């Protein structure tokens, strides 16, 4: 399960890599991004980081690290016994903390994570993955025995697999409680399982309501209007409780094992690719699904296991420990504003056609696309606030676009045209 290296074919253009504690190498793309190494957490595999009740918890192979309220200091718990291969998730439920111990089972803590006891009474299998709470009941999705439920007394676990079928898969990698239902990502065929509260039975979405064949769902995030699913290759959003899903690809490269978190205004996702590299993306929660993901930064040599938000910072759990960065002006990729609404070109990179999105009055501004030498390759007046542009005749390479509005300064961005 703990796969540190994925062999993914790289795109034809290069990313600017940033190391924790230094700024991004691409000021135009990612501004000034400064990463802080959380030094009191070991420089080792940190498989989970969770914000539980306003306090951060980070988990390694067999130990949990508990922060103070401002995450300025961390305290290590006693080691879990028996020692698991890794702790993938933590949850607070009815005054206790619970942890998944991959290779062993479930652990619980009654003293805020300082000490843990093995609490797998009745638990089937040895591969718990993710927790979810719904209507006062705690569930855990497993990699080998479907979904299991903590009994009402909180003293043992029972199988909760009515409607599931061993012929499909009992392997779950993610589970989420939404406003309307419990949704689990199972197997490697884009299949979803949706719980019917009235019958206590799972509805397996083999075709309608699944993601796509060949995809494994590794994480879910709920934001106002959408349930987000992050897979081994793509990001999807559903506005109808998982009945249908929309691919939200613009600006996000293909990668492996996406993880995500959300603030009050933005959703953040991590995509691993190549030889242990991660790209951190974000996008406004209120933005239309057609809006592109923005690259926050690229971390060379870092594999991301999990993300969490607390105290105005995004925390990234990696194979080299825990790092964090501010979600204030230092992390936001500037969306150039003319004068109050942003403009951008998507998809980016692209082949053939792109869309220029802007908040200007049509006809009041000019768009130009130039190559690296400054030669104008495409220009014209803006006639729509969502204007298609034909770039099919442009040679592959990096171009620079500018948009000038009446009474404003010129603002620029970068567009990569790929090989057809």
Report on this model:
The structure is a single chain. The chain has 420 residues and is mainly β. The chain folds into two domains: 17-326, Methylamine Dehydrogenase, Chain H, CATH 2.130.10.10; 344-417, Immunoglobulin-like. It is built from one helix and 36 strands. It has one helix spanning 27-30, and strands at 17-18, 36-37, 48-52, 55-59, 64-67, 74-76, 86-93, 96-102, 105-109, 117-118, 128-134, 137-142, 147-150, 157-159, 172-177, 182-186, 191-196, 201-205, 217-222, 227-231, 235-238, 246-247, 256-262, 266-273, 277-284, 294-299, 304-310, 313-318, 321-326, 344-346, 353-357, 365-370, 376-381, 386-390, 397-405, 411-417. The chain has a five-stranded mixed beta sheet with strand order 1-26-25-24-23, with no helix packed on it. The longest helix is centred in the N-terminal third of the chain and has 4 residues, at 27-30. The radius of gyration is 23 Å and the shape is globular.
Main sheet: strand order: 1-26-25-24-23
Number of H- or I-type helical stretches: 1
Q: Provide the helix percentage.
A: under 10%
Stretches with pLDDT under 50, minimum 5 residues: 1-31, 329-342, 359-363
**What overall form do the CA principal axes indicate?**
globular
Rg computed from alpha carbons, rounded to a whole number of angstroms: 23 Å
Distance between the termini: 36 Å
**The number of domains:** 2
- CATH architecture descriptor text of the largest domain: 7 Propeller
**Backbone structural class:** mainly beta
The CATH superfamily name of the largest domain is YVTN repeat-like/Quinoprotein amine dehydrogenase
Assign the CATH class of the largest domain.
Mainly Beta
Oligomer: single chain
- The number of distinct β-strands equals 36
CATH topology (fold) name of the largest domain: Methylamine Dehydrogenase, Chain H
Portion in beta strands: over 45%
Q: Round the mean pLDDT to the nearest integer and report it.
A: 80
- How would you sum up the major sheet? 5 strands, mixed
């Amino acid at each position: 399960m703990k796969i540190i290296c994925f062999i993914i074919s790289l795109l034809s253009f290069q990313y600017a890599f940033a190391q924790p504690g230094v700024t991004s190498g691409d000021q135009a793309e990612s501004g000034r991004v400064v990463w802080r190494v959380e030094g009191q957490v070991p420089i080792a595999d940190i498989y989970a980081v969770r914000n539980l009740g306003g306090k951060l918890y980070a988990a390694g192979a067999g130990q949990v690290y508990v922060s103070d309220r401002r995450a300025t200091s961390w305290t290590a718990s006693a080691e879990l016994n028996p020692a698991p291969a890794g702790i993938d998730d933590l949850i607070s439920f009815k005054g206790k903390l619970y942890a998944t111990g991959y290779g062993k089972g479930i652990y619980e803590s009654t003293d805020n994570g300082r000490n843990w006891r093995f609490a797998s009474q009745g638990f089937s299998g040895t591969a718990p993955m993710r927790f979810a709470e719904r209507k006062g009941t705690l569930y855990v999705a497993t990699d080998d025995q479907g979904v299991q439920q903590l009994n009402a007394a909180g003293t043992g676990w029972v199988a909760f697999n009515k409607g599931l079928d061993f012929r499909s898969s009992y392997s779950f990698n993610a589970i989420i409680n939404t406003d309307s239902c419990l949704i689990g990502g199972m197997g490697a065929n884009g299949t979803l399982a949706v719980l019917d509260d009235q019958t206590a039975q799972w509805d397996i979405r083999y075709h309608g309501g699944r993601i796509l064949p060949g995809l494994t769902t590794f994480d879910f995030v709920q934001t106002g209007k959408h349930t987000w699913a992050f897979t081994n290759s793509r990001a999807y959003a559903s506005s109808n409780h998982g009945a249908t899903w929309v691919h939200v690809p613009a600006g996000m490269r293909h990668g492996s094992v996406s993880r995500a978190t959300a603030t009050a205004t933005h959703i953040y996702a991590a995509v691993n690719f190549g030889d242990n590299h991660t790209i951190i993306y974000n996008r406004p929660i209120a933005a239309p699904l057609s809006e592109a993901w923005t690259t926050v930064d690229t971390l060379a040599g870092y594999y991301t296991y999990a993300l969490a938000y607390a105290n105005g910072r995004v925390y990234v759990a990696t194979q080299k420990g825990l790092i964090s960065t501010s979600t204030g002006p230092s992390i936001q990729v500037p969306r150039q504003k003319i004068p109050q609404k942003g403009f951008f070109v998507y998809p980016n990179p692209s082949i053939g056609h792109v869309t220029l999105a802007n908040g200007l009055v049509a006809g009041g501004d000019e768009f130009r696309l130039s190559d690296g030498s400054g030669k104008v390759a495409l220009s014209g007046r803006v006639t729509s606030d969502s204007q298609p542009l034909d770039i099919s005749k442009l040679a592959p390479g990096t171009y620079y676009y500018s948009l000038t509005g009446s009474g404003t300064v010129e603002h620029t961005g970068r567009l990569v045209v790929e090989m057809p």
